[in-house]
Amino acid sequence: MISRSEITEFMDDLLSIDDIMDDTVNGIQVDAPGKPEKVAFAVDARRDVIKRAVDHELLVVHHGLFWGDIDRLRGRAYELVSMLIKNDVALYTAHLPLDIHPEIGNNVLLAESIGAAPTDTFMEYRGTEVSLMAAFNEPTSVDEISNRLGDVTGEEPFAYLPDRLVKKAAIMTGKGGMALTKANELDADVFITGEKTYMTYNQAVDMEMPVIFGGHHATETLGIKELMKVVGSEFDCITEFISAPSPI
Question: pTM of this prediction?
Answer without folding.
Answer: 0.96
